[in-house]
Amino acid sequence: MSMLNEQEAKKLLDKILSYAKADEVSVTITGSRVGNIRYARNTVSTNGETDNLSFAVTSVYGKRSGTATGNEFDDAALERTVRRSEEIAQLAPESPEFMTALPPQHYQQGMNYSENTGRIDPVFRVDAALASIQECVKNKATAAGYLEDTTSFKAIGNNKGLFGYNKETSGEFTVTARTADEKGSGYGVSYFTDAAKLDTKGATEVAVKKALAWKDPKELKPERMTVVLEPQAAYDLLSLLVNAMDARSADEGRSYFGKRGGGNRIGSQLFQDKVTIFSDPFNAENPSSPFFADGRPQQKVTWVENGVLKALPYSRYWAAQKGVDAVPPPEGFIMQGSGQSLDDLIKATDKGVLVTRFYYIRLVDPQTLVFTGLTRDGTFSIENGEIKNGIKNFRFNESPAAMLANLEAVGKPVRIQNSMVPPMRIRDFNFTSLSDAV
Questions:
Q1: 383 in helix, strand or coil?
Q2: Complete edge-to-edge strand list for the sheet that includes strand 301-305
Q3: Burial class (CB in 10 A: 0-12, 13-18, 19+), 403
């Protein structure tokens, strides 16, 4: 029941709309099947699968709107939910930023569904976990890992004739390997749309290698240093910058992307000229939904080109105020890279620090995008193009905007969560103190 095909979703959506009496009515139907397996100390601890099907109805009278949700699908429950949304709308205050519902839109066929992922079952998950656990046992290490796969759909529609449907799959695998004495820790990941690209053994090999190499880390004085960021570490900070991109907050002077005195910085050189960031819902390696939640079509957008800010996301309301196209925010992003590998970046580094990933990241200042956080699960010193030894973890105070301004080199992008991110070499990265955490 949780997964409806396009015809089934359209039939249900039309039935919900048939009960509506409001001036405007919009409906969203979502369904998902989410499976997972978790293990720690080389032993599976939990596994499961959940199914969910729900819908949301938004009714509008004039500039008043109300939304109600439901997960029962008999006729009485559908009508009851519609009536509830209408009651809420009639009680709601008028919205000064109200935008009328969109008319029918043209959507390209989405590319973010894989039959391989849709067919994942408990046996597949057990085999994937076993491949990881065996790799740790072989190397006298301990694994803690988590695999989650999702198959889902979304259907949107309104009483103006708009309808959209998209079916998608996604998955992620993360593993932390610890040495037997728990003094060394390493991390590995594998993200996928197509389960054929899942490699739990390979990700675990990386984690184990880091854990063994990082054992008994040395202490290095915290200061501004050259860093080589693995793709996961690069994503941890770069995603914060992309998420901060918003035209309204920039125009109103509330973000890094705003000009002093008002307006935004579109057209300004903000970063090193190696930086090009775009989103493309139809990219084969990083596909996403062909439409945004409010019904706007998603298209390829270049946000930063050769270091110049080229575009910012606009809400429909703010775009109307400014007389520009209402470009929706991306679901994921792609940073352009080069043919160089992570090893190539390390070999070209005379002295620096290799960072596997960051965690416990918190915002310090939205105007400069300064964040603070810690390194984790494999931090190493680099000397003369080689990994010298593991070093104690650092706390950092750094801005991803400053990071991109200090970019020296990029490597080949890889899939991290819903994005494609290359390894990077950054100069003058600001480490502020040491952490004894493993």
A1: strand
A2: 308-309, 301-305, 277-279, 334-335, 419-421, 414-416
A3: buried
Half-sphere exposure of 263 (CA within 13 A, CB side): 7
Picking from 263, 36, 33, 16, the residue whose alpha carbon sits closest to that of residue 155 is: 16
* d(C-alpha 309, C-alpha 172), whole Å: 31
Confidence of residue 260 (pLDDT cuts 50, 70, 90): confident
Under DSSP, is residue 386 helix (H, G, I), strand (E, B) or coil? strand
As a dihedral over the C-alpha atoms of residue 41, residue 47, residue 53, residue 55, rounded to 10 degrees, the angle is -20
As a whole number of angstroms, the distance between CA 190 and CA 311 comes to: 30
Identity at 122, one-letter amino acid code: P
pLDDT in tens, 292-350: 999 999 999 999 999 999 999 999 999 999 999 999 999 999 999 999 999 999 999 99
Phi, psi of 235 (to 5 degrees): -65, -40
* Residue 296 · residue 270 · CB < 8 Å: no
Mean pLDDT of the chain: 96
Comparing CA positions, the residue from 202, 278, 255 lying closest to residue 400 is 255
Helix extents (H) in 220-282: 231-243, 247-251
pLDDT digits (tens, 9 = 90+) for 94-124: 999 999 999 999 999 999 999 999 999 999 9
